[in-house]
Amino acid sequence: MRTADFIAGAWCLDFANTVEPRYEPAPVSDYLPDYPALISWSVKAGLVSNAGARPLRQQADTRVASAAHERAIVLREATYRAFHAIATGGEPAADDLTAIRDAYADAVAHALPRWDDQLHWTWPADDLDRLRHLLADDAVRLLESPQVARVKVCRPTCGWLFLDLTRNASRRWCDTGTCGVREKIRRQSIRRAARRTDR
Description:
By secondary structure, this protein is mainly alpha-helical. It has seven helices and six strands, in the order αββααααββαββα. Strand 1 (19-20) and strand 2 (29-30) form a beta hairpin. The longest helix has 25 residues, at 63-87.
C-alpha cells in the first residue's frame, strides 16, 4: 500500500491521496473501502494512536460506522478537488469549499476545547466521526496557511497532492522513487521512439 509512505506533508493531503491513480484511464485503487480501513490508515498516519483507535474498532462493523465512512469519503473527494484546483493555478469550486466548511463546522460543533498555550480541539474517543473531524480541521488549517501556495500535484503520472517544502520549490513528484522513476522511463521511451522515427 503506497499510502503507508505518507509523502504529502499534511494529513489532509495524504487522505486525499488514498485513491490511486487520480488520473484516468488507469484502474483505480481505493485504499479506504470501509471504516476499518479508515481506522488502520489513521493509525499508520499518526492521526490517532493504537490505543485511541480501540473505541472506534469496537464499533467498526456497525451501520453507524458505515455512515461515518461515507461522510469521510465525501470530505476526501472535496479535499482532493479543492487542493488540486489550487495546485494547478485555479480556484477551488464553491461546492468543494462548502463541503469542507460543513465538515469543519460539524467538527467544531462536537469538539471539546483544550488549552495548551493555544487552542486545540479534541473529540470523544468513541465518536465515529472523530477521524473526519481531525481531517477537516487539518484541511482548514492548511487552506488558511501561507503553505497552501506550496501545494503541488504529481503529474502526469498519478495526480497525488503534496506540499513542496524545498527551499527553491523544486519538488516535482509525490515520490521520486516511484513516480519520478516512472516519469524518467516514460521520457526515455518517448526520446527513443522519436529517434527511431527520425531514421
